[in-house]
Amino acid sequence: MPQGVIINCMTVFVGGILGAFLKSHFPKKLSEALPNIFGLSAISMGVYLIIRLQSLAAVVLAIIVGTVLGELLGLEENLLAGLKKLEGKLPMDMSEEQMEIIISLIILFCFSGTGIFGTMNYAMTGDYSILYAKSVMDFFTAIIFGTTAGFLVGFIAIPQFAIGMLLFFGGTYILPFTSDLMISNFKACGGIITLAVGLKISNIKKTRVLNILPALILVFPFSLLL
């Protein structure tokens, strides 16, 4: 039973819905201050993962080639277009800023290196500590951004659940074919992406982070080759 995955998704759902309900009662000072704190938290998580890398060349090559593929495929642009179509079917209006928040949170909740590795590690070893730590951060992050982006933040738990279950049941078949070197580089690659998300949330540097995600796949063969 993938309890870690379910709990992580529930924290996002409950946090997002709670944040939307608290929108008119949430202190403005907290709404302005805490997003930067969560951005800094994501930056810290990214740095923590980056220092685990063992092959700088493999990770850098994966980031560069992955970004090229992501940009050519227009991953973030297509997601934005899909969200805008979804927006037209929902009884709510969303600003460009809210759409940016949703994209950043989809990446942070669904595709962070910590979340992906945490789920795979949980599937293989039963160690849910990484996912539970992520759940705490996701809960408060969802509350904060739920006050600005509305109920849609809570429903990010749906694609998060689908991705988490896929990783959970696929982890048993993937990890046995990987080495410690591959896992370390994978975590470092996820750390770079998490760092970019943190910079974006903190309004330090805007990056089309979703377009970097192919690097998470490429880092395995590049680690083997290099």
Automatic annotation (TrEMBL):
Membrane-spanning residues: 5-22, 34-51, 56-75, 101-124, 136-169, 181-201, 208-225
Q: Which UniProt keywords apply?
A: Membrane, Transmembrane, Transmembrane helix
Q: Where does the record locate the signal sequence feature?
A: none
Look up keyword Repeat and say if it applies.
no
One Pfam family hit: DUF554
Q: What is this protein called?
A: DUF554 domain-containing protein
Species name = Lacrimispora xylanolytica
Q: What is the lineage of its organism?
A: Bacteria, Bacillati, Bacillota, Clostridia, Lachnospirales
